[in-house]
Design goal:
alpha+beta, five-stranded antiparallel β-sheet, 16 helices, 10 strands
C-alpha cells in the first residue's frame, strides 16, 4: 500500500470511528437532541455500535482485508440499522445526512468487493463525514456539543497530519535500512563467488601434482595422445569430487581431456584467458563465461623433467565450479523474499528463480538496467536502488565480482521484496485507530 493509500485508509477509519462514536454518545447522553422515538434511538445506537466495532477491528488487526465476510457483514448490518433509525428522525436535515451516510457506506462495501480498495476507502470516508454532519445537525441546539464537535474535527486533522508525516519518516528509514542490507548481501555474495575461483585453483594444483608423475602424461608427451589420462582423472573425480569438473590441456592447446565437462566446452576452455595465463607457468583463477554459463575456473601448470633435467611445461590442469541456478539456490537457503542473479555484460548468466529471464530489466528493473554494464562491469562500482520489477516493488543491489587482478568479471545481483516497508507502514496506520 502506498503512503497516499495508507493515509486514505487511516482517514476513512478515523472519520467513521469518531462520527459513529459521537452519534452513539449523543443518543445515549442527550436523547432529546436526537429527535426520535425510543425505538428509533435504539436502532441508531445499535447501528453506531456495529460501525464503531467494525472500525476498531479494522484498525486493530494489521493487514485485515476490508472485504472479509465477517467484517463486511458487521458493517453492512450497522448500515442497515443506521438507515432504519434515520427514517424515524423528525429533523429533515439530520435524517437526510444519515441516509446519505448509509448510502455512501454501502457503496464503499461494493467497492471493497470489486477489489477497488482505495476507492472504497474514499467513499467510506465520505460516508463518515455525512454521518458526522448528521450527528452535528442533531446537536446544533447545544452550544457545548457544537464545541465538542469542532474540537473533534480539529483532532482528526491533527492526527491525520502527524500520521502522514510519521509514515513518511518511518517509510524512509525502513527503506534506507533495507536497501543497505541488500547492498551488504550483494557484496558478501560477490566475494563468495570470487572465492570459488580461488578454491578451484587449489583443486587444479592438486590435480597437477597427481598428473605430473603419471605414466599417462609421460607417454602422451611422446605420442601426443593424452586420452589414457581420462580413466585416472575420472577415478580421481569420482573419489574426490571437490570440483564440478576437471580437465587437462597440453602446452599447445591441441589435446584436451575433460571429466564432467563436454568436449565442446573443454575446447572453448583451452582457448580462454585462464589457460593462457597458466601456460606462462603461473597459477590462474577467474570467473568466466563458458559454454552458455558462468563458471569459476582455476588452472595450474604441469611441468616434468626435460631431457637436460630442467622442468619442462607439458600442459595445464584445470578445475571448475559451475555458478548456475543450483549454486545460487544453495546460497539462498529458501529465503523466499530474496532472489539472486549473476550477470555478465548484457547477459543474464543465472538466476535463483524458477524462470530464465534474458533481459537485464527483468532482473534489476528499468531504473538500473542501463547502469549495470558501464558502472558495475566497467568501473567495478556497486549500484543499488528501490525499483519495480514485474509490477512489484523491489530493493535491488548489484556488486562486481572481481578477478584476482581486481578486474570486474561479473555482477552479483540481490533483489529483496520491498513489501516489508508497506507492511510496517500499514501496521502503523492500522494501529492508530485503536486510540479513540
Amino acid at each position: 500500500m502506498s503512503t497516499a493509500g495508507a493515509v486514505t485508509n487511516l482517514g476513512a477509519e478515523l472519520v467513521v470511528f469518531v462520527a459513529a462514536a459521537s452519534l452513539l454518545l449523543l443518543a445515549l447522553t442527550r436523547p432529546e437532541l436526537v429527535g426520535a422515538a425510543p425505538a428509533g434511538r435504539a436502532t441508531l445506537q445499535v447501528g453506531a455500535v456495529l460501525l464503531v466495532v467494525a472500525a476498531a477491528v479494522q484498525g486493530a488487526v494489521p493487514d485485515t482485508d476490508p472485504a472479509t465476510v465477517l467484517l463486511a457483514a458487521g458493517r453492512l448490518t450497522g448500515v442497515a440499522f443506521l438507515a432504519v433509525g434515520a427514517l424515524g428522525l423528525r429533523a429533515r436535515s439530520s435524517r437526510t445526512a444519515l441516509l446519505l451516510a448509509a448510502a455512501f457506506l454501502a457503496a464503499g462495501e461494493i467497492a471493497y468487493w470489486v477489489d477497488a480498495v482505495t476507492v472504497g476507502h474514499v467513499i467510506r470516508g465520505a460516508g463518515g463525514i455525512a454521518l458526522g454532519v448528521g450527528a452535528a445537525s442533531s446537536a446544533r441546539r447545544s452550544i457545548a456539543v457544537r464545541i465538542a464537535a469542532a474540537a473533534t474535527a480539529l483532532l482528526l486533522l491533527v492526527v491525520l497530519a502527524l500520521s502522514a508525516a510519521l509514515s513518511a519518516v518511518i517509510t524512509g528509514n525502513i527503506a534506507s535500512e533495507a536497501l543497505e542490507r541488500t547492498q551488504e548481501r550483494a557484496q558478501i555474495e560477490a566475494g563468495i563467488v570470487a572465492q570459488q575461483a580461488d578454491a578451484v585453483v587449489t583443486q587444479a594444483s592438486q590435480l597437477a601434482g597427481i598428473l605430473g608423475p603419471s605414466e599417462g602424461l609421460r607417454s602422451g608427451r611422446v605420442t601426443g595422445n593424452y586420452e589414457p589420462l581420462r580413466a585416472s582423472m575420472a577415478a580421481l573425480q569420482s573419489a574426490y569430487p571437490q570440483a564440478d569438473f576437471i580437465g587437462f590441456v597440453d602446452s599447445q592447446g591441441r589435446a584436451q581431456v575433460g571429466v564432467d565437462i563436454d568436449q565442446t566446452a573443454i575446447i572453448e576452455l583451452a582457448g580462454g584467458e585462464v589457460v593462457a595465463d597458466a601456460l606462462t607457468g603461473t597459477h590462474a583463477a577467474s570467473v568466466d563465461y563458458l559454454s552458455g554459463g558462468l563458471v569459476a575456473l582455476g588452472a595450474a601448470p604441469i611441468s616434468i623433467g626435460g631431457e637436460r633435467g630442467a622442468p619442462e611445461l607439458v600442459g595445464v590442469a584445470v578445475a571448475g565450479n559451475r555458478l548456475d541456478p543450483a549454486f545460487l539456490r544453495s546460497r539462498l537457503q529458501n529465503q523466499r523474499s530474496t532472489q539472486f542473479a549473476l550477470l555478465t555484460g548484457e547477459r543474464v548468466a543465472a538466476t535463483s528463480g524458477e524462470g530464465s529471464p534474458t533481459e537485464l530489466a527483468a532482473v534489476v528493473g528499468e531504473s538500473l538496467a542501463d547502469d549495470v554494464e558501464p558502472r558495475v562491469l566497467g568501473q567495478g562500482e556497486p549500484v543499488s536502488a528501490e525499483t519495480s520489477i514485474g509490477g512489484e516493488g523491489q530493493f535491488v543491489a548489484a556488486h562486481p565480482v572481481l578477478a584476482s587482478d581486481g578486474r570486474p568479471v561479473a555482477a552479483f545481483v540481490v533483489t529483496q521484496d520491498s513489501s516489508l516497508v508497506g507492511d510496517t507502514r500499514a501496521s502503523l496506520f492500522h494501529a492508530v485507530p485503536r486510540g479513540p
